[in-house]
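Re: [ENG-882] Designed sequences occasionally contain unexpected residues at chain ends

Forwarding the minimal case from QA. Structure tokens:
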């Protein structure tokens, strides 16, 4: 059984012939938002429909980290190492402080409630960027069905708390990631999950003062769609897909795939040397060791 598919011969150097795709946790309904804590040697991830955040520790297994989680989805860590989370149920982005208390980063924009923040990243200046599609308020499955008050935008919250909609022409913005040098921002549009709308990754140039330009289609994942994504240290983009994780070169071509038996929602690098890829996939979490390192 092969755990990967090489399309560009260069991808052959990214994978290890004897490293398996391993199911490390299972029994969930829709897992998302993996984030690695190297200092605690653990992975956190969301089990969205079951309204909880799980924690996986190598050698020990999985336990509940937070329940209820306000139907949390994507997570990341800020530059001080704190957990930053998107919450469908709270319709907000929060930060977990060192003492465990929760700080609201964003829940309104121009007097209206956010939809259901989906995925989040933190830039080197400490600003928090997140996507706000409507998936978490469309049904009662992954949150609380309620009225949409705002378009599905991408937002940036600066360290001083000021907030602005930085991308307003998306159908359903979802995963997002910076290139390692932060000159490019990749944002997935997963509109086609609900109709005939765009389903691709767009790329933006990041200019002075974090101003965005461009926005052309970078790559369209098939089969499935780009939900969550991360970059490796050389700027290759690793995206979720229906058949696993696809590795896309900076010029947009598909280099190869990690094959996973369930539909992948999101991924992150972690483990020693950030050489391990953790993949949340429908009911399970999988990992594979790579001859690559994650950018963050
Ligand atoms: Mg997502």
């Amino acid at each position: 059984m092969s755990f990967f598919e090489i399309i560009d011969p260069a991808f052959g150097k990214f994978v290890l012939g004897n490293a398996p795709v391993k199911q490390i946790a299972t029994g969930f309904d829709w897992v998302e938002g993996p984030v690695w804590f190297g200092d605690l040697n653990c992975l956190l991830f969301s089990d969205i429909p079951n309204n909880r955040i799980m924690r996986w520790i190598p050698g020990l297994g999985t336990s509940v980290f937070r329940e209820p989680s306000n139907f949390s989805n994507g997570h990341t860590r800020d530059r001080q190492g704190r957990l930053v989370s998107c919450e469908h149920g709270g319709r907000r982005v929060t930060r977990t402080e060192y003492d465990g208390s929760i700080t609201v980063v964003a829940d309104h924009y121009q007097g209206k409630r956010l939809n259901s923040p989906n995925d989040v990243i933190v830039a080197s200046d400490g600003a928090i960027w997140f996507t706000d599609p409507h998936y978490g308020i469309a049904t009662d499955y992954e949150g609380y069905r309620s009225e949409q008050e705002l378009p599905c935008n991408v937002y940036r919250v600066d360290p001083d708390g000021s907030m602005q909609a930085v991308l307003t022409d998306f159908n359903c913005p979802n995963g997002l990631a910076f290139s390692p040098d932060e000159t490019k921002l990749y944002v997935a549009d997963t509109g086609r999950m609900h109709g005939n709308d765009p389903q691709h990754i767009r790329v933006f140039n990041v200019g002075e003062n974090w101003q965005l330009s461009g926005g052309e289609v970078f790559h369209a994942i098939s089969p499935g769609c780009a939900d969550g994504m991360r970059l490796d240290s050389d700027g290759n983009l690793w995206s979720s897909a229906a058949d696993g994780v696809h590795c896309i070169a900076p010029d947009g071509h598909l280099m190869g795939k990690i094959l996973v038996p369930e539909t992948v929602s999101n991924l992150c690098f972690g483990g020693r040397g950030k050489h391990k890829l953790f993949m949340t996939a429908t009911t399970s979490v999988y990992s594979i060791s790579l001859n690559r390192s994650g950018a963050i």
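QA comment: On inspection the terminal residues look reasonable. Residues 135-138 form the longest helix (4 residues). Proposing we downgrade this to a documentation issue.
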